[in-house]
């Protein structure tokens, strides 16, 4: 599966409320969108990809995040770009 690479400053503009792999709570990471059941911000994925990391490396570095969650976030980002 191929995904578009998105600059790290772009994802906050996306409507993450439609993505079941993420959640947001004012009590967790200052209300940032995070991967569900973790404290890992969604922005961390895009920052790492932008810096040249592979998804497999990101998953190693953030063991609480699943491949399915990453795929869902990347798909949401891609769909948001297509519908924009």
Quick structural gist:
The protein has 84 residues and is mainly α. It contains three helices and two strands.
Describe this structure in words.
The protein has 84 residues and is mainly alpha-helical. The chain is 39% helix and 5% strand. The protein has helices at residues 42-50, 55-61, 67-83; strands at residues 22-23, 34-35. A two-stranded antiparallel ribbon has the order 1-2. The model is unreliable at 8-12 (pLDDT under 50).
Topology:
Layout: E1 22-23, E2 34-35, H1 42-50, H2 55-61, H3 67-83
Antiparallel strand pairs: 1-2
- Uncertain runs are 8-12
Number of helices: 3
Distance between the termini: 21 Å
Oligomer: single chain
| Spatial strand arrangement across the major sheet | 1-2
**What is the percent of helical residues?**
25-40%
- Helix-strand topology string: EEHHH
Descriptive key words:
5% strand, 84 residues, mainly alpha, two-stranded antiparallel sheet
